[in-house]
Design brief:
alpha/beta, 34% helix, eight-stranded antiparallel beta sheet, binds fructose -6-phosphate, 25 strands
Length: 613
């Protein structure tokens, strides 16, 4: 995908048409979508007198303040929260964008690849542009095409647009309808007793309804107060199934916690319980039963993902290899897509993603399919692109994850990957019946054991409060602990802005140990009993150079005059111990960031769903 300057690729869209005032509904929806972008926001409402547009650079609070100063209201409106990948956010670049005659207003999430050509063509016809965005080209072109029939105009528009988009479109001449369309970006339609919604994500409408349509590419939705109709680009009527979402409105609220991240960490016992029972076919996702895939047809497993999901893949590699003896490669999706991977129709490619919309992971899936591999996705968002396009999917039951830094979705991914590994081990004949039961019992015990770990919250908070001054933190482990160290390091750096790196314990002496000095912190994860002596020896090497150590796990070690502090973990089969150690790592990162007073749920420069490469 080409990255365009000034494009709005990771944004949130909300729209409403119905009997109620659209403004509070849109503002409420934008609050739920702020995780998708927060450098500017805006809304347009459409009444009998035409559009009122309010846009504001900065956080949503700035828009709310402007709306308090100049209130607007109407029964139809569209809103947008923006996250520009490049270039400065500004009022002019904020959405909605309106055509020159003030007839058509558009909110856009995505990237219009041929916007320059569109702009040049329209400019030659005298159209004046007011922003540097690709999105304004959509509004201006729609207005240029407009012939009194909004649906016909949108169809014409779609034939001209190249790139990806989710669009909400209002027309001042037709205040009774709101038109929505999508291509390669998510969009749902919500249905309630008092009106209809469009949104980038389900949490934006959960307060009002749990009944949604998931839009497919190139479908056109025409919403009115009384109903919603779907058309294809030939203007033929489509009949879609209304689905009921199992997420509750409360799951998208903070519930008294200071941050969503802390709430989501605390939710992990329930998330693990739901995910395990769902995946094993005794809960909601039984249609995605693990026996749909028979690993015996494959000689290799590749796991492709980004960020934390990639770290889940690093852990899974150990588990899959131990239980199946198949060769497993964990690949960064952005590298996998371009490396001409050695895969074929005997390769199972696992795509792991919370959002199911990560551009690189989607591209990795498409590349794997192109080469004939079987693709299996582990995703949290039903109806997402990955879920729809992969050959098979297993859903994680994490519910909506609002904090940008993933916690509960990561834990749910681990659980699904463990269960897949156990299942595959049984299919291949490497895991005997009694071992299967033992492993399943261990996975089922995770919610209780995580509850035990959460009892250490105060101790972790206390320790974190004396760690805020560190400039650099190292995370070490051996074997599967080394894989989860990568997640601990990522969590810390992304929310606390403290530099950190993860290393295999045995690798330290090959270079990194030269960075260890007085008062460096080395978080040491030690859950593999057979490697206790080795990892403790690594901890001693750094202690003897003046470092401090936070030891996570039960390996025997002294306290080195108070320089080694330990958080114990409940006993569990070593293969699944990352699910326990990661909770300590999450809390540790969280409390350091909290002590520094940082904006934990929305760390700088990061967006929740990375829909651009
Ligand atoms: C880190 C984090 C990111 C995501 C990554 C992939 O806390 O959340 O590293 O894991 O952007 O996102 P998904 O899982 O949506 O594909």
């Amino acid at each position: 995908m080409i990255i365009l300057y000034w494009s709005d690729v990771m944004c949130g869209i909300i729209g409403y048409i119905g009997k109620e005032d659209a403004v509070p509904i849109i503002v409420e929806g934008l609050k739920k979508l702020e995780y998708r972008g927060y450098d500017s926001s805006g809304l347009a409402v459409c009444g009998a007198d035409g559009f009122s547009v309010v846009k504001q650079k900065g956080r949503l609070d700035a828009l709310i303040a402007r709306l308090t100063d100049c209130p607007v209201s109407a029964n139809a409106g569209i809103g947008h929260t923006r996250w520009a990948t490049h270039g400065e956010p500004s009022d002019a670049n904020s959405h909605p964008h309106v055509g020159g005659q003030n007839r058509i207003a558009v909110v856009h999430n995505g990237i219009i690849e041929n916007y320059k050509q569109i702009k040049e063509r329209l400019a030659r016809k005298g159209v004046v542009f007011h922003s540097q965005t690709d999105s304004e080209a959509i509004a201006q072109l729609a207005e240029y095409y407009y012939d009194g029939d909004l649906v016909r105009t949108v169809i014409k528009l779609l034939h001209r647009l190249e790139g990806s988009y989710a669009l909400g479109i209002l027309c001042a001449d037709n205040p009774d309808i709101l038109v929505a369309v999508k291509k390669d970006n998510p969009l749902i339609i919500g249905v309630s007793g008092h009106g209809h919604f469009i949104a980038s994500d389900v949490p934006a409408v959960l307060k009002y309804t749990d009944r949604v349509y998931y839009m497919e590419d190139d479908e056109i939705a025409v919403l009115s107060s009384g109903g919603v109709q779907f058309f294809n680009t030939e203007r033929e009527r489509l009949h879609k199934t209304l689905e009921t979402v199992s997420w509750s409105a409360a799951s998208a609220e903070k519930d008294g916690y200071p941050h969503f991240m802390l709430k989501e960490i605390m939710e992990q016992p329930k998330v693990l319980k739901d995910t395990v029972s769902g995946t094993l076919g005794t809960g909601r996702n039984e249609q995605h039963g693990l026996d749909d895939i028979d690993i015996r047809g494959y000689h290799k497993i590749v796991i492709a993902a980004c960020g934390s999901a990639y770290n889940a893949g690093l852990v899974a590699k150990y588990v899959f290899e131990r239980l199946t003896r198949l060769s497993v490669e964990t690949e960064i999706a952005s590298e996998f897509r371009y490396k001409d991977a050695v895969i074929d129709d005997k390769t199972l490619v696992l795509l792991v993603s919370q959002s199911g919309e990560t551009a690189d992971t989607i591209a990795a899936m498409r590349e794997a399919k192109r080469k004939g591999a079987y693709t299996l996705s582990v995703v949290n968002v039903v109806g997402s692109t990955l879920a729809k396009e992969s050959d098979a999917g297993v859903f994680t039951a994490a519910g909506p994850e609002i904090a940008v830094a993933t916690t509960k979705a990561f834990s749910a991914q681990l659980a699904v990957l463990y269960l897949l590994a156990i299942r595959f081990g049984v299919q291949i004949g490497r895991v005997a019946k009694d071992e299967e039961q033992m492993y399943l019992a261990a996975v089922r015990s995770l919610p209780d054991k995580i509850r035990e770990v959460l009892k250490e919250t105060d101790a972790i908070q206390k320790y974190a409060s004396v760690c805020v001054g560190y400039k650099s933190v190292f995370f070490i482990g051996r074997n599967i602990d080394c894989a989860i160290a990568a997640e601990g390091s990522l969590k810390l750096k992304e929310i606390s802005y403290i530099h950190s790196e993860a290393y295999a314990g045995g690798e330290l002496k090959h270079g990194t140990i030269s960075l260890i000095e007085e008062d460096t912190l080395v978080v040491t994860i030690a859950t593999c009993e057979r490697l206790y002596a080795k990892i403790v020896s690594n901890a001693e090497q750094v202690l003897s150079r003046g470092a401090k150590v936070l030891l996570i796990g039960n390996a025997p070690a002294g306290d080195y005059d108070g320089r080694l502090v330990r958080i114990r973990l409940p006993e569990i089969c070593e293969l699944f111990s990352p699910s326990l150690s990661v909770v300590v790592l999450q809390l540790f990162a969280y409390y350091i960031a909290a002590n520094k007073g940082l904006d934990i749920d929305k760390p700088r420069n990061l967006a929740k769903s990375v829909t651009v490469e």
